Amino acid sequence: MEFWYSESYSDNVKLSIKVDKQLHGEQSDFQRIDFFESKEFGRFFTLDGLMMATEKDEFIYHDMITHTALAVNPGIRNVLVIGAGDGGTVRELTRYKNIEKIHMVEIDERVVRLCEEYLPLTASKLKDSRVSLYFQDGLEFVKKSQEKYDLIIVDSTDPIGPGEGLFTMDFYTDCYNLLSDEGILINQHESPYYDKDRKELIRTRQKIKKIFEISRVYQAHIPTYPSGHWLFGFASKKYDPVKDIKADEWNNMGLETKYYNTDLHVGSFALPTYVNELMEEEL
Fold first, then answer.
1. I need a labelling partner for 212 at 20 to 30 A (CA). Which of 7, 166, 196, 243 fits?
2. Is 83 left (phi over 0), alpha (psi -120 to 50) or beta?
3. How confident is the model at residue 165 (pLDDT cuts 50, 70, 90)?
């Protein structure tokens, strides 16, 4: 008998992956957590039945959510990461010697502990001496924190369940207030393709544009995310992500990446016409 993981993208479309076995499954205080083994994508994990990361393509997401900001401001020292329970974003950040402090705020400790056990490919640097883990609501953390950060990465789940509050005007305003004068905010922006994701993209875009002096959207191809076409947001008080890229400085660091490069960086901000039009829509 065959065992398949299936995720619905719409009422008429779904992704299915043949699974060798389920490695673990549990209901935490916040969400359903499952880990699977597959031939095509290796190990992968889901939250409430939605794909979070696979061993085969996680590098695309984590490259693009991390290195884009560091190539614009290689002098970043203090970083706040919201979500990112699989550890992949922190893994990429720890590759930068100049980064002094990484605060990671994840509401569900079970996600982190299970990824350490079942997905060590992404969770390998969570014990780095520069990393501090906070198991609490990111919404409350940014509201109460007195820190100043050069970079905030919102590596959250979709805007449902535990991640819903991380897509609100109040949250983005609190993030703005925690950023230094050269601060950058990066967040995942959903897919522009299916109706449900498209609406969340428009809502998110409208909120961030009202708060930040500079707000741009960039893209990546992630095969196991809905439609494969995924967007990220780049917002800043000072830096334009294309005009202000420090390509030579970043390349001289000698970091080896599997997806990101500085040519792709510039190209990723050149969006299809239908996406540009979507972002001008009002809901």
1. 196
2. left
3. low
